[in-house]
């Protein structure tokens, strides 16, 4: 696989995105949506992982309007900085950026298929909201923070969507998971998985909450989901 930063045109401006290509150079596309810590080494590694799985993977810089190309770790001052950047982020504009990234991917010769969004924490919420716009073909939300507060758009999510939740998530109580499930009750486009004993951020190898078993299960389920819908 090969990887590089590219410019994503947006009106009169442009923002960056980390693009990782599969070894064969072509495939369906996934948009990897960052946590509050930027397109850091972990998010780039996730993009590379999906490229190794045969997908064209693009991780757009969601915080570009406030602090382009920020890279943060997960504790202390860096965590505080991530929360500050989140508070300064216009969520609707960030969702529009995901749609812009999807539009760009559809024009690239490397993309031979549909486009999905896979988001983590804040990125999980953005993947869900992007799904509600109809601009992507499928979505995956890993421990998407705040989704339970935006169930007003659940009815607009008509494409396939997969939710991964941690049983012991300090920021997303099980009652919130139940609210999201209830919003999709009776619909066949949504799937839910709860990971016993796992904590928030279980997919990230750089966090103390990393859970190898949960991460492996979630990745396998995500690959099956993508294979079925892209």
Question: Can you characterise this structure?
Answer:
With 230 residues, this protein is an alpha/beta fold. Helix content is 35%, strand content 25%. It has helices spanning 41-52, 76-87, 91-107, 122-133, 174-183, 212-229; strands spanning 2-10, 13-21, 27-33, 56-60, 111-120, 138-142, 161-166, 190-195. An eight-stranded mixed sheet has the order 1-2-4-3-5-6-7-8, sandwiched between helices. The mean pLDDT is 97.
Main attributes of the structure:
230 residues; alpha/beta; globular; eight-stranded mixed β-sheet; 6 helices
List the helices and strands and how they pair.
Layout: E1 2-10, E2 13-21, E3 27-33, H1 41-52, E4 56-60, H2 76-87, H3 91-107, E5 111-120, H4 122-133, E6 138-142, E7 161-166, H5 174-183, E8 190-195, H6 212-229
Parallel strand pairs: 3-4, 3-5, 5-6, 6-7, 7-8
Antiparallel strand pairs: 1-2, 2-4
Helix pairs in contact: 3-4
